[in-house]
Specification:
By secondary structure, this protein is mostly beta strands. Helices cover 5% and strands 33% of the residues. Among the domains are: 130 residues, Beta Complex (Ferric Hydroxamate Uptake Protein, Chain A, domain 1); 76 residues, no CATH class. The strands form 5 sheets. A 5-stranded mixed sheet has the order 3-8-9-6-7. Strands 10-11-12-15-16 form a 5-stranded antiparallel sheet, with no helix packed on it. A two-stranded antiparallel sheet has the order 1-2.
Length: 301
């Protein structure tokens, strides 16, 4: 998809620019990096964050959108939902053999939705960024505050809580077009309803259809094309010949009696193949027991 992205990293601190009486003040962001609400300027640990206004202005929606805006954080892997998160370049090796939570290496970067840990070996839950209060990044080690899988750091998605005594809501719709690709559309809606003086409900729904732009063309392939059979001097696709020490370990083998099966992608040939749909919702309830205690439950899908 042809996108124009602005490489901006936002450090969530309150800053005063010393330019005399007309000094400009950036919005203050309250974070919970130390398990209590504090100004990001006063937190005694390194923390960067994207606030709600910044998330809206940058059009942040999915995992890669907010990660690219946060300094010192990258991700790599097999595609959406199959990435390993790196903070300051540190993470466990991405395993491709994960069949259960215990198969493979545990991640070194914790991933949280509110107070719920979501980290899994070799994969990440691509939580859709709608009605988020902020995204926090805490470089590690954070084992004391956030437990296992947080040696290199922690990424936290903080949602907006239900508000007592307030009726509010909003909805948005957007569409975009890709040159040579498909149209994309997005619809989101948020509503906050006070059920009683001490109970409030907040609901979020979204449907984001992201049009494809890569054509999957017909092709065939067999193991006979594997590098294991490639002889020295064979010219690669990039025009460079294979050196003698890079020849395949079965180069020159007699394959006359081998029946190679040819695989093809005829059932997957399609223009604009890489389209994606994010659809789901979230429902949260907040009950105020007294001035000191509140109970919050949430369900997302």
């Amino acid at each position: 998809m042809n996108k124009l992205s602005v490489g901006t990293s936002v450090l969530a601190i309150t800053t005063f620019m010393g330019v005399g009486p007309a000094a400009a003040q950036l919005d203050e962001i309250i974070v919970t990096a130390t398990k209590r609400a504090e100004s990001a300027q006063d937190v005694p640990v390194t923390v960067s964050a994207l606030g709600e206004d910044s998330l809206d202005e940058l059009g942040v929606a999915v995992f890669n959108d907010y990660l690219v805006q946060l300094p010192g954080v990258t991700a790599g892997g097999g595609g959406p939902g199959q990435n390993t998160i790196y903070i300051r370049g540190v993470a466990s090796t991405t395993p491709n053999l994960t069949t259960a939570g215990v198969a493979g290496l545990a991640p070194n970067v914790a991933f949280y939705l509110d107070e719920q840990p979501l980290a899994q070996p070799g994969r990440n839950l691509d939580v859709y960024a709608v009605d988020l209060q902020r995204v926090e990044v805490l470089p590690g080690p954070q084992g004391t505050l956030f437990g296992a899988s947080s040696q290199a750091g922690t990424v936290r998605l903080i949602t907006n809580e239900p508000k007592l005594g307030v009726v509010e809501g909003n909805a948005s719709a957007a569409t975009s077009f890709t040159d040579g690709g498909e149209m994309s559309t997005k619809v989101t809606a948020v509503v906050n309803i006070p059920a009683t003086e001490k109970l409030a409900l907040r609901g979020v729904v979204y449907v984001d259809r992201q049009g494809g732009f890569i054509d999957n063309v017909a092709g065939e392939r067999s193991v006979a094309e594997s590098a294991r059979f490639r002889t020295a001097g064979t010219v690669r696709g990039n025009g460079l010949p294979v050196s003698a020490n890079r020849a395949g370990f079965q180069a020159g083998a007699d394959l006359s009696g081998v029946n190679f099966l040819t695989a093809n992608n005829s059932g997957l040939v399609e223009d604009d193949f890489n389209d994606a749909v994010y659809a789901g919702g979230r429902l949260a309830a907040l009950y105020e027991v007294n001035e000191d205690w509140r109970i919050k439950v949430a369900h997302a899908r």
